Structures are given as structure tokens and as C-alpha cells.
Amino acid sequence: MSVAQVFEQLEQNFNADAAQGLDLVFQFDIEDDKTYHLVINDGTCSKHEGAHDDPSVTLIMNSETLQGIVSGETDGMQAFMAGQLRAEGDMMLATKLGELFKMG
After folding, report:
1. What is the pLDDT of residues 13-23, one digit of tens each?
2. SCP2 domain: from which residue to which, for each copy (predicted)?
3. Does the CA dihedral 75-59-9-21 come out positive or negative?
4. Nearest to 56 by CA among 73, 44, 42, 39
5. What CA–CA distance (Å, rounded) separates 65 from 87?
6. What region does 41 belong to: left with phi over 0, alpha with psi -120 to 50, or beta?
7. How far apart, in whole angstroms, are the C-alpha atoms of residue 62 and residue 82?
8. How many other CB atoms are found less than 10 A from the CB of residue 46?
9. Crossing angle, helix 3-12 and helix 63-71, to 10 degrees?
10. Are 26 and 60 within 8 A, CB to CB?
11. CA-to-CA distance for 74 and 47, rounded, in angstroms?
12. pTM of the entire structure?
């Protein structure tokens, strides 16, 4: 699955109920591919290619780690502890991804 397809899958698995009242930007710097960001705004999610001017949190990983996390094969916290995933900005927001998107 390509990185672009992974982000399409994330968008399709978005949980609008969990995003009510939120205004966040999750940026994904994929080291061996492109940068994408997801704008979560009061129950909506939109996917964009490229960097955002002011992301809430930036997650840095390679495409293999991204695919593992989205498929549910890789635990995000374990990837973080193993150094496969780095976060910049509000790291606690990274823990919200599992609520906002159905993984696996």
C-alpha cells in the first residue's frame, strides 16, 4: 500500500464523533516519501499534501512504520519507544489518533 493510500484509508476511517469541538492539525513527515497533514476541525477531517504552517503535532517516521501503525500491526507507543517514531509539538495529541481514526 502506498503512503497516499494509507492517508486515504485514514480519512475513510475517521471518527467524526470523537472530533467534535476539536481544532487540530496532525502533520506526518514521512522520511522516505512526502509530508502530509490532516486538519481536524469540529467533526471534520481533510487530508492535504505538504507541510502545514503551524501543526499541532508533527509525527516523523518512515513509510513502513506508518503502514504498521495504521494497519494495527505496530503499536504507536512501542514505535515511539523504539525510536521508529518521533513527535514534535504537543506529543499528547499523538495519543488521540487512536480515538480519531479506526486503526487495523
Report:
1. 999 999 999 99
2. 7-102
3. positive
4. 39
5. 13
6. beta
7. 13
8. 11
9. 30
10. no
11. 22
12. 0.93
The domain spans of the chain are 3-100
CA atoms within 13 A on the CB side of 96: 20
Fold of 3-100: Nonspecific Lipid-transfer Protein; Chain A (3.30.1050)
CA distance 67 to 87: 17
Alpha-carbon span 81 to 9, nearest angstrom = 25
Q: Among residues 51, 50, 46, 41, which one has the least CA distance to residue 11?
A: 46
Q: Strand ranges (DSSP E) for the chain?
A: 23-30, 35-41, 44-49, 57-61, 86-89
Please answer whether residues 28 and 56 qualify as being in contact, where contact means their C-beta atoms are separated by less than 8 angstroms.
no
Provide Rg for the chain, Cα atoms: 12
- What the block records as the C-alpha cell of 56 is 499541532
The amino acid sitting at 52 is H
